[in-house]
Specification:
The complex is a heterodimer of chains A (about 200) and B (about 150).
Chain A (H helix, E strand, L loop, with lengths): L11 H9 L3 H18 L8 H13 L12 H18 L8 H5 L19 H17 L4 H11 L4 H7 L4 H24 L1
Helix pairs in contact in A: 2-3, 2-4, 3-4, 7-8
Chain B lengths: L3 H19 L4 H10 L4 H40 L8 H14 L1 H7 L9 H13 L15
Helix pairs in contact in B: 4-5, 4-6
Classes of the chains: A mainly alpha (about 200), B mainly alpha (about 150).
Chain lengths: ~200, ~150
């Protein structure tokens, strides 16, 4: 059946041309996003790093496992979505029993992932302590910033991003600004730990 | 107060949300974020482009491998189809004549050719082509009758 006009799938040549034409800021977003996703899934990446993730996403779009409708989504947004789904798939497919001792201890350049899973499934005491310390620092750092403090509180209450915005009465702009402050702070926290 | 496990989960959900935010940063914001991490945005972008180029090359190499394999498979399939032709050149010519007269489509293909003018090699070549096209079976018999 022919695709609806305007919803045609891109050919492989079109996909390739679009990927090769990605501007530097788009490359930065994709690279940082892949890095963040690998950090999130930690050892469940099975030893794969953000470079593997970025390349796997490109291959999935090129070989048609993930199709691209140029009029529906940009190639950058599509690649970001693929990075997300592949990393989730890796995490879901992780078998702790098959993990090697090395992969259990694997860390990224940015330090151990907060969602890292150890083979035995037992809590990693050190990881829990790091998380506890990081969260306490965050709360302390934004004690005087109402919007950021509300966002942190929302996450502590188990709310999702949209719920936090709606429940706490934050405008989209306020919510976005608060998240960006948190993102900067978290990056600095990790950077400090790398240096430390 | 939340226990250790809760803190880990809270931070994990927060980090996942913040990771998704990276996708929505403006061009200026992502450049600033990379600089704030002490890295050169130009170097990071160039490295990402290099990784992507490697992936594109891998895909091209895979396509070349597949095309070569398909070709080799086709050659093997053709060479594995054995055709038993009569040893006597006259019987071969007769077979071709029969195929031409009994198979309407073959007859159309050959109707303007003077079969007597074909060399023995041409006759064999024509018979092999008819075999490949399925008009002659592996035992050298004309297939069907399209009358």
């Amino acid at each position: 059946m022919a695709a609806e006009p305007g919803l045609e799938l891109a050919t492989e040549a079109e996909v390739r041309a679009a990927i090769e034409a990605l501007p530097p800021p788009a490359l930065l977003r994709l690279e940082r996003y892949a890095r963040a996703r690998i950090r999130l899934i930690g050892a469940r990446s099975g030893g794969r790093d953000h470079q593997d993730l970025l390349q796997e996403a490109v291959l999935a779009v090129l070989d048609g496992r993930r199709s691209w409708k140029p009029t529906v989504v940009s190639i950058e947004k599509l690649l970001a979505g693929v990075i997300r789904s592949i990393s989730s798939h890796w995490a879901e497919g992780f078998d702790p029993d098959e993990a090697t001792a090395e992969s259990q201890l694997a860390t990224t350049d940015d330090g151990p992932g907060v969602l890292s899973t150890v083979a035995s499934g037992t809590p990693d005491v050190e990881r829990s302590l790091v998380a506890k310390g990081d969260l306490a620092e965050l709360v302390q750092a934004f004690n005087d910033d109402d919007h950021v403090a509300l966002v942190i509180e929302g996450f502590r209450e188990g709310m999702s991003g949209p719920e936090i915005q709606a429940e706490l009465g934050l405008t989209e702009k306020e919510y976005g600004a608060a998240r960006k402050k948190l993102l900067r702070y978290r990056n600095q926290q990790r950077k400090g730990k790398r240096r430390g | 107060m939340a226990d250790k496990r809760d803190d880990e989960e809270i931070l994990a959900r927060l980090d996942e949300d913040l990771a998704d935010l990276i996708r929505d940063l403006s061009d200026e914001e992502i450049v600033e974020a990379v600089k704030a991490e002490g890295e050169d945005p130009a170097v990071v972008a160039a490295h990402a482009r290099s990784l992507i180029a490697q992936a594109i090359d891998r895909r091209a190499a895979a396509l070349r491998r597949r095309a070569r394999q398909d070709y080799e498979d086709a050659v093997v399939a053709l060479t594995q189809r054995q055709l038993r032709l009569p040893a006597d050149p006259k019987r071969r010519r007769s077979l071709l004549q029969t195929a031409a007269s009994r198979q309407r489509s073959v007859g159309l293909t050959l109707q303007h050719r003077d079969l007597t003018s074909l060399s023995d090699e041409d006759v064999e070549s024509q018979l092999r082509k008819l075999h490949e096209l399925g008009f002659i079976d592996d035992e050298g018999n004309v297939v069907g009758d399209a009358k």
